[in-house]
Write a structure and sequence with these properties.
By secondary structure, the protein is α+β, with helices and mostly antiparallel strands. It contains 7 helices and 15 strands. The structure holds 2,5-anhydro-1,6-di-O-phosphono-D-glucitol (AHG) and manganese (II) ion (MN) (3 copies).
Length: 335
């Protein structure tokens, strides 16, 4: 690089939370910074194991199933253990919900945060080398609570932070603390997440739709008509492009950067959809709203839903405002 191309004032994630966001964000207290440091350690360690998976026989099934009925991959189990150990070691977490754990985990100590997580999202794609990720959300422990399920059976609107790390060509961490969305890329030489996508905003519209069309026969009428109209547009309009990776984190990351709509609608096969509310729908809905987009079930704002059980599922349509508004209009037409 010529001299003027070498950046000499890089913003690491730690500095970002302490300064750039610290000025406005209410929860950028020392505790939150320490929690974030433990989270980013977990992402670095998981990323390291994912990259070595094929080399050290870490791909393939673990031979067990989890409480949501998924076959657990070895990396699901390893990612879960890494995450649980990092949250325990932080000393800042009281309650932890994980896709791979049937019940909540309540840690010793006086942690003030509750974390919900999907340690490895898209794990069915792992052995094919497709991008997977870790998704997380953070609630403040309720005042006076000693840590219980009521601390996490709360609407997404009460989350104070959420994000994901996608383990793709590089490790990309996308985070919101309620003051917009920022993207960080892991510099493996420094071992630091560097701010590379400040103040991310989702394009207001984009002719891309992302859904598993193999479920078409199970969809309800509004969903069928909505996607039909994208594929067979009215006179003179071009059909949309279809992009579906099958890892929510990867489909979300593309949608955040390029725009368009991502959906996993509830249908006659999955009455409440497939994606889990606490650690998949809420974090992604929080991020997409903070980036200027929308997230709905078709009839209800995702973040307003109150989960009854920690592994509750929900149908979801998320993405560019204009695209999601068409879904909402379609459901109103059928009401
Ligand atoms: P997970 O790997 O954490 O169980 O999540 C898998 C989810 C999500 O990543 C993706 O959007 C969806 O499963 C894909 O489901 P289909 O294969 O049914 O399309
Ligand atoms: Mn799973
Ligand atoms: Mn998932
Ligand atoms: Mn998972």
């Amino acid at each position: 690089d010529s001299l003027n191309e070498i950046k000499t004032d890089i913003i690491t994630l730690t500095r970002f939370i302490l300064t750039e966001q610290g000025r406005y964000a209410t929860q950028a207290t020392g505790d939150f910074t320490l929690l974030l440091n433990s989270l980013q350690f977990a992402f670095k360690f998981i990323s390291h194991n994912i990259r070595r998976a094929t080399l050290v026989n870490l791909i393939g099934l673990a031979g067990a199933t989890n409480s949501t009925g998924d076959d657990q991959k070895k990396l699901d189990v390893i990612g879960d253990e890494i995450f649980i150990n990092a949250m325990r070691a932080s000393g800042k977490v009281k309650v932890l919900v994980s896709e791979e754990q049937e019940e909540i985990i309540v840690f010793e100590g006086d942690g003030k945060y509750c974390v919900v997580c999907d340690p490895i999202d898209g794990s069915s794609n792992l052995d094919a080398g497709v991008s997977v990720g870790t998704i997380f959300g953070v609630y403040k422990l309720q005042p006076g609570s000693t840590g219980g399920v009521s601390d996490v059976l709360r609407p997404g609107t009460e989350m104070i932070a959420a994000g994901y790390t996608m383990y793709g060509a590089s490790a990309n961490l996308v985070l919101t603390t309620g003051n917009g969305v920022n993207g960080f890329t892991l510099d493996t030489a420094l071992g630091e997440f560097i701010l590379t996508h400040p103040d991310m905003k989702i394009p207001k519209k984009r002719s891309i739709y992302s859904v598993n069309e193999g479920n078409t026969v199970y969809w309800d009428k509004p969903t069928q008509e909505y996607f039909h109209n994208l594929k067979y547009p009215s006179e003179g309009l071009k059909p949309y492009s279809s992009r579906y990776i099958g890892s929510m984190v990867a489909d979300m990351h593309r949608t955040l950067l390029y725009g368009g709509i991502f959906a996993y609608p509830s249908d006659s096969k999955s009455k409440n959809g497939k994606l889990r509310l606490l650690y998949e729908c809420f974090p992604m809905a929080f991020l997409v709203e903070q980036a200027g987009g929308l997230a709905t079930t078709g009839t209800q704002r995702i973040l307003d839903i109150v989960p009854k059980h920690i592994h509750d599922r929900s149908g979801i349509f998320l993405g560019s405002e204009k695209e999601v508004l068409k879904v909402i209009d379609m459901y109103q037409k059928y009401e």
